[in-house]
Prior knowledge:
The complex is a heterodimer.
Chain A: H1 2-39, H2 45-57, H3 64-72, E1 75-78, E2 84-90, E3 93-97, E4 104-108, E5 113-115, H4 120-135, H5 140-153, H6 159-168, H7 172-188, H8 193-204, H9 209-221, H10 224-273, H11 281-302, H12 310-332, H13 341-363, E6 379-382, E7 385-388, H14 389-411, H15 413-423, H16 425-430, H17 435-457, H18 469-482, H19 487-508, H20 510-527
Antiparallel strand pairs in A: 1-2, 1-5, 2-3, 3-4, 6-7
Helix pairs in contact in A: 1-2, 2-4, 3-4, 4-6, 5-7, 6-7, 7-8, 8-10, 9-10, 10-14, 10-17, 10-18, 10-19, 11-12, 11-13, 11-17, 12-17, 14-15, 14-17, 15-17, 18-19, 19-20
Chain B: H1 2-9, H2 12-33, H3 45-71, H4 78-97, H5 110-114, H6 130-154, H7 159-178, E1 190-191, E2 195-196, E3 199-200, H8 204-230, H9 232-242, H10 244-249, H11 254-280, E4 282-283, H12 290-303, H13 309-328, H14 332-347, H15 351-374, H16 387-391
Antiparallel strand pairs in B: 1-4, 2-3
Helix pairs in contact in B: 2-8, 3-8, 3-9, 3-11, 3-12, 3-13, 4-6, 4-11, 6-11, 8-9, 8-11, 9-11, 12-13, 12-15
Amino acid sequence: MSLARSLFALLGLVFLLGVQGQSVQAQENLDALRPLVNNLAKGKYDETQRQVEALVASGDPVVVPTLKALRAGDLYVRKADGEVFIATKGGKGYLLIDPLTTENAGEAGRRDVSKIKVNNRLRRVIDASMGSLTLMAADPKVRLAAAEAVFKAGDPEGLEPLEAALQKETDDDVRLVMEQARAAALLNSDRGDSDKLEAIETIASIGNRDALSLLIGVRDSTEGALQEAAAAAITKIEKSLAMWGNAQNIWYGISLGSVLLLAAIGLAITFGVMGVINMAHGEMVMIGAYVTFVVQELIRNSAPWLFDYSLFIALPLAFLISGSIGVAVERGIIRWLYGRPLETLLATWGLSLILQQAIRSLFGPTNQQVGNPEWMSGAFELGQLTITYNRMWIIVFALLVFAGLMLVLKKTPFGLFTRAVTQNRRMAASMGIRTPWIDALTFGLGSGIAGIAGVALSQIDNVSPNLGQGYIIDSFMVVVFGGVGNLWGTLVGAMTLGVVNKFLEPYAGAVLGKIFVLVFIILFIQKRPRGLFALKGRAVEA
Amino acid sequence: MMTSYLFRTLDAKAGVFIAILLAVILLVPALNILIAPDNFFHVPNYAVTLMGKYLTYALLALSVDLVWGFCGILSLGHGAFFALGGYAMGMYLMRQIGTRGVYGDPTLPDFMVFLNWQELPWYWYGFDMAWFAFLMVMIAPGILAFVFGWFAFRSRVTGVYLSIITQALTYALLLAFFRNDMGFGGNNGLTDFKDILGFDIQASSTRAGLFVASGLALLVCFLICRYVTKSKLGKVLVAVRDAESRTRFLGYRVEYYKLFVWVLSAMMAGIAGALYVPQVGIINPGEFAPANSIEVVIWVAVGGRGTLIGAVLGAVLVNFAKTWFTAALPDVWLFALGALFVVVTLFLPKGILGTIGDGWTALRQRRVSSNAQAGGGKPPKTPPTSPAAAANVDPQPAE
Lengths: 542, 399
């Protein structure tokens, strides 16, 4: 432990020294470059061009802003002392910026400075040299961006500086991109066919859409072996792109499925296990989302440093609040209506109207702002896939909730009682289980899970009083499709519907895809009225 | 024979209802047109349209009561049939605009010109003829109901499952009609109508005519519903409602009975929609919203399911309350409507008419029994009506 710590300390020290050394060196470079920059103002175009070449020859990327400004006609010389500045209009005439340090250097009157003239030939010279300068930059990110720019442009002019840069490149990632950029530039140059064949191979290995369009260009403009090689590479890329497209559809489908799962899983308890139609289920989800909103609002006003943990605070609160509303609803309304499912449906629908209007009266009808914590924003790349963190965490969260619920139902005494009561109420009561309490608690559990789902959905959906209504039909579809009384069915149902929906979307559009799914479920229920995973038994209802 | 049968089955309640309905049909237009506007008894134009709208809602409620009250099919998607009928009517009215539209195209409705459509889609053919359009008002919802019901009832989808898929049905149609590509005006729907059967749709005489038409349609449909429910077929329907499996075991083809009454009910809903559209002047996909269909169910529940008259009463009462609330206390309306759902299901499971009817029978029975007691008999039990009685039902999961 202490060894590791001293090692860290040592590393820190070395790092500090290195930084200091670097900055001293940078200062010396600037001092050396300053006269070159000031020389830009002297003489005519030819003279300026020579100075530009001298600047480029220094190979220091610190001159890039100067050259850019010169190209754009923003470079001015102060008449009094011949110093050169980047100037923008403002203040009493111009605002001056030091071209090398890009720091503010005061102001100058309109007549105190004069512009350094630039013509098209000069611009071309600057353009050609700019790429090679940034390719040599000290910061690998800058080099990477420069290499990508060359790749996109595919300009044969960039070939030589690239090859020069490749010689010096040490970073493997940047090197790879540079190789690819070199290949792209090479294809457009007049090099020999063998080099070009190699370049096609390099580009084919990239396998994204840019590479594809590049190769299509090659195929259409060349003949013979090159064309064949390009065509072969194109089919290969298209195949892999199609595969990635499928992977993306599956990913989006799973993401949608996890949202459906979250919305439906509470319903799977109340409807699936207890047989109670709760049309106010969506409103429990909505209440969970509003709990998140209130928690974030309180944190914003009193303890902003807690913001990243707001969801963890909101989760138990949402569970408790939605859950206790659920218990109250069961005790107040639903227990009078057992055995009359159609009436339960109507009463809970009325309840959902009341809850919606209550939230609307309290918070107003507009969307509320719920923020993403730091760890839920952003994205990362996986192959050709872009995966956003919030989607990923919601999938993880949905599966966690599912697993947790399974555990509660299978491994706890409460779960045992619940299953006993749903399987044989009278027998369970005879064994000493207080069935009314189990009813209330089970309903509370279902509602509480809806509340938790609301916390998660607040991250990707608009938090408004209508939040729940959008989910209610979908969640019923999931539960009915998966099979009533079976949590695994709900999981499979949600994922299937999500993936099917996303695969239909490219062909049919979002709305039509959804309609197809609805029609499919309607037809499916005809075939298997008890869902995908029906409980086996000999029960005949009524 | 049918008429004589009808009259034979009319009891006092139905007689009173028909008399009141006839009086309304005659009086309201008369008071609107014949009485001078400054007179106290004058009925203003907006009130005629409003009441006409109530009558179409009442017809819709009647159709829901026919399937829910007598056959136990709780439809949460009757709004779909209502809206389909409305769209059929709307298409006719659109074609009647002719060159008077904003773009002045003789065949294409404005929204199609706007979307750069070159010709009329095939399903718009024939809607320039009134008879065809009026036929489609019944046939379009009828076909949808037949196809849907054929699949649903044959595979014995019942109870809550059926309710949920009817809701999914209307939801799917809602999404479909929102699309511009469907050729039904997308989000905006069909509107800006000019005239119907050659009469100016804004004129007060046309409004009165539409009111009378709505009233008569309600009356005719009421008589049909009564005829159906009082017939032998109606008895089978009630048997299906109360014990479907047992009826099937007795040898009845339950699905055919259900299918018949389902299609009939959908056609009535279509007619209601068709009469609704010219009176409000617009039809848009919002009519397909599942919430609308569920609201219809509560009208029936308030009035009393399985009573027919109750459905009409409930529709008029709830909608009158809605009009009043949304004008006076707009924020309270959804609270009131929600509370209505809860209170009616908990405390008035038989609705207003059912409860009154029960009270009436109880009273009569007590009188009979007190007469009988004088002769030494025992008093018969009164049927349970209170929520306390409902609460005594042992909690049973609905499986």
